[in-house]
Amino acid sequence: MLSIIIPALNEEKYLPLLLKSIKEQNFSLDYELIVADAGSKDRTIEIVQSFGCRIVKGGLPAVGRNTGAKAAKGDIFLFLDADILLSEKFLENSLFEFEKRKLEIASYCLIPRTKNLLFKIGFDIFYNKPIVIAQGFLANGAMGILVKREIFEKVGGFDESVKIAEDHYFARKASKFGKFGIINSAKIFITLRRFKQDGYLKTIFKYFLCSLYALSGKAVRSDIFNYRFGHYSKKDK
After folding, report:
1. Cβ proximity of 151 and 178 under 8 Å
2. Which residues of the chain have pLDDT under 70?
3. CB–CB of 44/93 below 8 Å?
4. Whole-model pTM above 0.85?
């Protein structure tokens, strides 16, 4: 079984789009949907229930992912952010390539949902191309991580003390226990709401510095980057 685990907080606008894109996958294998809710005050819970998801208590993303994994029944976990969309045949293609390449942990290229061609090209050059080139020696994972349960358990789950980029840190730790790769046959489409809310240059610079620090093999455990979960204003949600 595949367990799809999604941490969420006040995601009434974006989460139903993701859940709908999952339900429309026409995926023939058995899977479950688990949403780790961090105390939403909007219609998130109501929406999640309407899609037949299991609900567990969440917190910050790492906490939500770990709580979801504890409740999961599957032997493969797929961790997804709540504000993304999946490419056509995402689940089918992901698992087929995962098995064919004998991967044990994997992540994806990210496609910004914007009409700004310059930003899309820049994102591809400075994020997608590097993580594909580096996949054989430096694991990177964000927005979506596919991992075997046994590898997740060997790592001990996501480190809940990490303040930002805990998904990248998890991927690098997990890659020490199993083969890592970037899935080529499936893509994740992301919203730019964090860039809009916090500012494009500020956000890009923040993640650039974070990436440089991560090259040391250490995790960001201080709140120097002032990361906030679910802090979006209504106009940017």
Report:
1. yes
2. 213-214, 221-237
3. no
4. yes
Instruction: Summarize pLDDT for 31-59 with one digit per residue, the tens.
Output: 999 999 999 999 999 999 999 999 999 99
11: CB partners within 8 A, 6+ apart? 40, 42, 44, 82, 83, 230
- The answer to whether 106 touches 198, Cβ cutoff 8 Å, is no
Range of the domain at 116: 2-236
Burial class (CB in 10 A: 0-12, 13-18, 19+), 125: exposed
Number of compact structural domains in the chain: 1
- Four-CA torsion 221, 160, 169, 183, nearest 10 degrees: -150
**Residues 62, 129: Cα–Cα separation, whole Å:** 26
Q: Specify the DSSP class assigned to residue 126.
A: I
Tens digit of each residue's pLDDT (9 = 90 or more) over 155-166: 999 999 987 789
Residues 34 and 49 sit within 8 Å (Cβ to Cβ): no
CA distance 47 to 61: 19
Amino acid identity at 152: F
Question: Distances from the Cα of 48 to the Cαs of 4, 51, 123, 188, in angstroms?
Answer: 13, 5, 31, 21
Q: What are phi and psi of 54, to 5 degrees?
A: -80, 145
Whole-Å CA distances, 85 to 30, 37, 46, 75, 169: 20, 19, 20, 23, 23
Tokens encoding 183: 């899935």
DSSP 220: B
Query: Which candidate, 111, 229, 100, places its Cα nearest to that of 162?
Result: 229
CATH for 111: 3.90.550.10
